[in-house]
Amino acid sequence: MPATSPALADRLKDVLVAASVAMTVKARELANAGHNVISLAVGEPDFATPAHAIEAAHKAALAGDTKYPPQDGTPALKQAAQRKFKRDNNLDYALDEIMVANGGKQVIMNALLATCNPGDEVLIPAPYWISYSEMAKLATATPTFVNCPQNNGFKLRPEDLDAAITPKTKWLFLNFPSNPTGAACSRDEMKAIAQVMLKHPHVWILTDDMYEHMVYDGFEFCTIADVEPALKDRVLTVNGASKTYAMTGWRVGFCGGPKALIKAMVNMQSQLTSGISTVSQAAAVAALDGPQELVAERAAIYRDRRDLVVAMLNDAPGIVCHKPEGAFYVYPNIAGCLGKTTAAGTKINTDGDFAMALLLEKHVAAVQGEAYGMSPYLRISYATDTESLREACSRIQDFCRGLH
Predict the structure, then answer these.
(1) Which CATH architecture fits 10-48+294-401?
(2) Does CATH number 3.40.50.620 belong to domain 67-289?
(3) pLDDT number for residue 290
(4) Cβ distance 38 to 388 under 8 Å?
């Protein structure tokens, strides 16, 4: 008889490899083969971690702060997160209402594992960050979606939200400024969402605020627990060091939420990973409590990059690019390119066809909108240097001019 391998878990059958990861791997293969590839596929700041954060980590390691950390985070980082929530978001969380995890992704996974049963629904505005739906599936929940159309600035309409909530809805996820669109909600728009949620007290609300400091043109960020304090006892406010302080590799996320929920999430984390790296936590304390001028300086650079990319993409035949309020992504509509053939003879029927042909023919990596729940679009990250962005957009223009 032929040899067989032990079976993998059924839960993996519907869990997809992130399209951004797959595109990055393909781009790396082309680069390794000697091609000049420009990747606009990764949502990672190209800036350096602040020097004072690195120095704090170094000092912590030299001082022997290298033992097992508390499951919920070091007191120093929890206190720094507490100050940050008050300073930036007007939110008061007790220390037992705050926890630290291995990036925002583990915060979210902890929350889902602590609350979801088979058949529960996680309501996700679309377009959405790829991992939301896959994490819901891993937690035995069912991801459900509510469209945020371009003609509403990719924002969530209250009436659509209200219609999408069912008795099975366990969570609503909010991510504004958004990955992948960069859309952000004004205080009035968030208030309208909050009014809907007041009608549905059985639903938890998770707000992923990773891009809060990346807002432009005078736009003011807001988070739902501040906008509507009556919701605070069922809101999980998620944040971290990765985007604001260019600390993606340090893996530091944190959150504030109701005491009972946080306790359950810490229990989950204690079994999954225990606490997170002590030196990373020391670095995050320094980032949160240290000078903040760098945050605004980098946001101004992102704004200029956004303006460059939006203008150049709108000059590409067949592309219409909305100008978003925040984050470091744009989500251009490529409907005008569908049904055409590239200069190399590839037929473009979908946004996936467009993204792959763009990579193979012009060596620019972007991610198809299909992966984020809305086609025909591309997600383009402008978290890279300005000259690379200019060159990449020029290649996209050439690619579109060659369609026939």
Answers:
(1) Alpha-Beta Complex (3.90)
(2) no
(3) 97
(4) yes
